[in-house]
Design a protein that fits this description.
It is built from one helix and eight strands; from the N terminus they run αββββββββ. The protein is of the alpha+beta class and 174 residues long. Strands 1-2-3-4-5 form a five-stranded antiparallel β-sheet, covered by helices on one side. A three-stranded antiparallel β-sheet has the order 6-7-8, with helices on one face. β6 (138-146) and β7 form a beta hairpin. The longest helix is centred in the N-terminal third of the chain and has 53 residues, at 10-62. It is rod-shaped and about 100 Å long.
Amino acid sequence: MRLGKRGFGLIEVLLSLVLVGMVLGLVAKGYQTASRLNQASYRLSQKLEAATFLRRLSAGMSAATELDPLPNGVQIKKIDPKYNVTYMESFSRLPWPTSSSSADLDAGMITVDYILDTVDKTISRKVGLEVNVVLERVGAFTVTRDGRIADVELVSLDSGDGWSVRVHLPGVSP
């Protein structure tokens, strides 16, 4: 009779397998929950980015002297914020440097283009020679104009959610 060399019994092996299965199940459930939270957080951040972009775009459009919808975007012409309209000061008298490539110095106007790149699925902002990506993962971007009203529609590439904003354009040009 060998009392010192005893192996695992069938009940002990089954019990350890059940415990390991339960632990793995809890880990998988936690991973699944974390993945769902991550996706929800990503969608929320994407909505916030789109809302911020639409808010900035509508502010820029409402300050425009001219607005031309393009096939994949919009072109805005407005007075350069560095230009003192009240006193019609020239750019050379301003205390900070100005970029001659981004402004029409005689009229004090700048042209800003917001264009959807259909390959990269991004919206870029172009002022003169400077181009910046302002929004990524965009499925569609359209701007339509009906008199003094402009409608902007934006669709997310990931979730297919669509957002829109209506902008009341100024009635007179300076």
